[in-house]
Design goal:
Strand order of the largest sheet: 1-2
Number of helices: 12
Distance between the termini: 56 Å
Strand content: under 5%
Largest sheet: 2 strands, antiparallel
Helix content: over 70%
Number of strands: 4
Order of helices and strands: HHEEHHHEEHHHHHHH
Structural class: mainly alpha
Mean pLDDT: 80
Low-confidence stretches: 1-7, 9-13
Radius of gyration: 39 Å
Length: 390
């Protein structure tokens, strides 16, 4: 009954995983299509600001965008190769999310390096790369979700964090295009949403660390490294935004740092999830279910073996108890037939012979049972040899 219960739990988990994977696939398709449509509308309806082409003596970093595009293309190719050689179905489906996370930046930096994406000036005189905000808006929910897969974070908390991630980007964009005091209000809202996103990400990795085996120090160290990478790379983007907002860094440095942290965040996810030994919560749950099922099977087998042993001991004990009176019955029958109690009639003698033969047959069966038990206990050795038949 317990084995059946484990199988039922595993079937329910597989059904849930199947529905979740279909939802993820649909989300990735819709996300990419919406980005393509929004980027097309942006490119065809918005024109670049001439003042943004040469800002503070710094031209557009076209070569940097080309190198960043190449880096994201390489990361996407590595994800694709990893997907080809991944045998675990749940982990192979993560490629869909990796395509969103690394594929959309490839399209973004292709538009930037080709000069097709519009470059504007915000209310503070900085370059406003609108297609990058669009890219962040499309990839941030996917990145938050893929981090949530390594632990048992509640789904409602993950959804709230994904919405907070969209709020970070949307409010940050509004803080760029609105004058004071509107920019300050939306900047505060953006940082508030970012705080809750970071709380969820840290909680995700913390739960994964607590759920990992205490004796597996290397695995826990890898999770700690993932937490440090996540914190450093994600916090870097708002830090650069604040430095640029205050005019403390040059436009070229702002752009270079944005690209560096953008690549670190997205490529870091590929390194942590796709190309490392870190396991998703689904993989660990499947391993636990299999281990529990195997343990229950082992206990069941041991119980069956113990039951069989007790049955054999019972038969052996009963056989010993049966053989003693049988031998006495056969001996009494022989004595009566031999006339130890006087002559008996032919009819009575036939009955005694029948009783003697039946007793001998039953005694032979009892001896066979005892011999079989001795063979199982290895107290009786069976010798194969040639014999002469009469």
């Amino acid at each position: 009954m317990q084995v059946a219960g484990f199988r039922s739990d595993m079937a329910q988990w597989n059904t849930f995983a199947w529905a979740r994977n279909n939802i993820v696939t649909l989300f990735c398709i819709i996300d990419v299509l919406l980005f393509i449509i929004a980027a097309y509308v942006l490119v065809t309806t918005v024109e670049s600001d001439a003042a943004a082409m040469m800002l503070g003596g710094y031209p557009l970093p076209t070569h940097q965008w080309t190198r960043t595009q190449t880096a994201f293309t390489t990361s996407l190719l590595l994800d694709f190769i990893s997907w080809l050689w991944t045998v675990h179905k749940d982990k192979s489906r993560l490629f869909y999310l990796a395509f969103v996370i690394n594929g959309i930046p490839v399209l973004t930096y292709t538009l930037l390096s080709s000069g097709a994406a519009p470059i504007l000036l915000d209310m503070h005189g900085r370059r406003l790369v609108t297609v990058r905000y669009l890219q962040w808006l499309a990839t941030t929910p996917a990145m938050i979700y893929i981090y949530s897969l390594i632990s048992a974070v509640p789904h409602d908390e993950v959804v709230r964090s994904m919405l907070h991630g969209c709020g970070v980007i949307a409010f940050g964009f509004l803080a760029c295009v609105l004058p004071w005091p509107g920019d300050a209000v939306f900047l505060f809202l953006s940082f508030l949403c970012f705080y809750w996103v970071m709380v969820t990400l840290r909680s995700t990795i913390r739960l994964a660390i607590e759920d990992s085996c205490l004796h597996d120090g290397d695995y826990r160290a890898a999770l700690e490294g993932a937490r440090l990478l996540t914190t450093f790379s994600w916090v870097g983007v708002p830090v650069v935004w604040v430095l640029a907002y205050g005019g403390w860094i040059a436009p070229w440095a702002e752009e270079a740092l944005y690209q560096a942290f953008d690549f670190a965040i997205k490529a870091g996810i590929s390194c942590v999830i796709m190309h490392s030994s870190l396991k998703t919560f689904a993989e660990r749950q499947e391993e636990k279910n299999k281990a529990a099922l195997n343990e229950e099977r082992a206990r069941t087998i041991d119980a069956l073996r113990e039951s069989a042993r007790m049955k054999e001991n019972f038969f052996a004990a009963m056989s010993h108890e049966l053989r003693t009176p049988l031998v006495g019955i056969i001996g009494l029958a022989d004595g009566l037939i031999a006339g130890s109690c006087g002559d008996v009639s032919g009819k009575v003698k036939d009955r005694l012979e029948t009783m003697k033969v039946s007793g001998q047959r039953l005694c032979s069966l009892v001896n066979d049972i005892l011999d079989a038990a001795s063979l199982r206990n290895e107290s009786l050795r069976l010798v194969h040899d040639s014999v002469a038949l009469p």
